């Protein structure tokens, strides 16, 4: 599933669509935690921690107003 997460984000044509996909996966991971589905949450986080996703610096510059209850996202890459 982690490859599917990263390929869905990278497969989008514009940065805006990539940003929306990132936000959707963050929300989905948060819902998985709320449901007690920690395996799926870790799979999503693993996809977000892919090196190709981490290198999209402008994608991580957007601060999402989403609480993350149990786990935290990887820090954005340094400028």
Tell me the number of strands: 0
Identify the quaternary structure here.
Answer: single chain
Rg value: 12 Å
Biggest sheet descriptor: none
Tell me what portion of residues adopts beta-strand conformation: under 5%
How many alpha or pi helices?
5
Arithmetic mean of pLDDT: 79
What pattern of helices and strands is seen along the backbone?
HHHHH
Q: Ranges with pLDDT <50 over ≥5 residues?
A: none
Proportion of residues in helical segments: 55-70%
| Structural class category | mainly alpha
Shape: globular
Describe the model.
It is a single chain. The model has no long low-confidence stretch (mean pLDDT 79). It contains 5 helices and no strands. By secondary structure, it is an all-alpha fold.
What's the short version?
The chain has 79 residues and is mostly helical. 62% of the residues lie in helices and 0% in strands.
Write the layout of secondary structure elements.
Blueprint: H1 2-10, H2 15-35, H3 38-48, H4 51-54, H5 57-60
Helix pairs in contact: 1-2, 1-3, 2-3
Keywords:
5 helices, globular
């Amino acid at each position: 599933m982690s490859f599917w997460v990263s390929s869905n984000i990278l497969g989008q044509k514009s940065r805006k669509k990539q940003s929306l996909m990132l936000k959707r996966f963050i929300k989905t991971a948060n819902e998985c935690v709320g449901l007690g589905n920690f395996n799926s949450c870790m799979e999503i986080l693993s996809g977000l921690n892919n090196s190709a996703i981490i290198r999209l610096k402008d994608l991580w510059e957007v601060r999402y107003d989403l609480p993350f209850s149990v786990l935290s996202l990887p820090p954005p890459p340094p400028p």
